[in-house]
Amino acid sequence: MSLELYRNGSIYSPADPFATAMLVENGTVAWIGTEAAAGALLDSRMTEIDLQGALVTPAFVDSHVHLASLGAKLNGLDLSGVRSADELLAAVAADEGTGLLLGAGWDESGFASGTVPGPEELQRAVGDREVYLARADVHSALVSPKLADRLGLVEGPEYSGALVRGRAHERVRAAVFAFEEATSARNRNSALAHLASTGHGAVVEMAAEHVSGRADLEALLGRSDQEKAATPEVFAYWAELVDSEQQARDLLASFDSTAVVGLGGDLNIDGSIGSRTALLRADYADAPGDRGTAYLDAQRIGAHIAACSLAGIQTSFHVIGDAGLDLALEGFDRAAEKVGLAKVQAGRHRLEHVEMVDDAARERMLGFALTASMQPGFDAAWSGTGGMYEQRLGATRADAMNGIGQFLSTGVPVVIGSDAPVTPVSPWSAVKACLELRDPAARISARAAFMAHTRSGFRALGSPSPFAGQLVNGAEATFAIWDAAELSVQTPDLRVSSWSTDARAGTPMLPVLEDELPQCLRTVRAGTVLFDDMGQA
């Protein structure tokens, strides 16, 4: 039996908003209360952990990650800091490795010239090495001529200069990420360790053949019980289209793992705004005549939704542009006509990203009982005057992106993720971004954002536990401990507050997110320490 008494801190719990102590027994929260009560409760059976004023919260759930890609970025060349084509070339030339050079994170919308290196420049910088450098959104990449030749790339709409995008990029990426298992394992382990160190107790892996392949997902699922217990819990979606109920059942069963919770995720209806592959109703502001790319049509979308709904299996689609969302909703219409609205609603389906949504589309999403899986980090990175959104879309469309507040006001559930490696794994940055979204109507309180990044993530997965994502008696002891300078109840604006900010209302307090963000001191999953920087037993 294990008993750990955490005391002398602040416990974020709806059971007691003023709690300072928590008892964990065999991986379960056994008690939450005050410091005085903790002193009376303490006995020789318990390990006492002095929080020294730290904050304890439920651990975060990242509702949209790509572990292989995140690990490859952590172990490869990070180009998120380069600010010009010359800096990019210098970073590539300075890499001292051998063989294929993998890099990620560049974004030419922040370059003064707005241009990227050409193929000859790229090859000169690395000699005879092959190079794959993913754009920040991972929907296009720069590739060296040597790699392009090996993979048979042909100049055309999807491959020009050194830039490859669209379906051609998916084929290149699938080939590049066909790692040996030792490399894949290193990338997975690096990603999961990084997520644990940032306070995550669970992650939702969006797997697909074009992302890192089925073998990578099966290796992730096939880890030993001991290995799994030492990392954040992994849930997974597999993006493969089906067109019948039996095919859906057979595909899900083929994984032989309850961790695979749905067939979808990175089922791409369109691409990304930065790569100009998100499907738009009107032209890109900086590319007249271009409205992006449709990777699926309404018939195929509807058939997949109908099959999954009949099988009782959740699905999800990647959709970013407003015209892409039109296609998605037409697919849901078709599925409802085929199998009935009630079956579709019971599927608890979701849409990933949904950055460009009007009121009519939100109402339709509500009617289908959909969940919006969103990334406020996108808004933090790309909104604002002169930002990527404005460059690609113009100010009017750019200022109406990522309507998290409107979704919640409409009644559409929202869950939050990073889409790592697209944006950094930084959950408090995501909460802060929700307070500061470009569109004032989209902003939500810190508490609402925190719930979307914790408890709501489990709900969207259909967790059978009513306590998942909370710290209450009887809940699994999955939590993170934070060094936070100051706590308060924060709202983006007094007019949009959904909870009282008066301490007498008993609203649990969260870190003030104005200057330094909280630092993770320890992450615990079901009583097992995943990450520790406290220096205590």
TrEMBL record:
Keywords: Hydrolase. InterPro entries: Amidohydro_3 (IPR013108), Metal-dep_hydrolase_composite (IPR011059), Metal_Hydrolase (IPR032466). It comes from the Bacteria. Residues 48-530 form the Amidohydrolase domain. Gene3D superfamilies: 3.10.310.70, Metal-dependent hydrolases (3.20.20.140), Urease, subunit C, domain 1 (2.30.40.10). One of its GO terms (molecular function) is hydrolase activity, acting on carbon-nitrogen (but not peptide) bonds. Pfam families: Amidohydro_3. This is Amidohydrolase family protein. It comes from Paeniglutamicibacter gangotriensis.
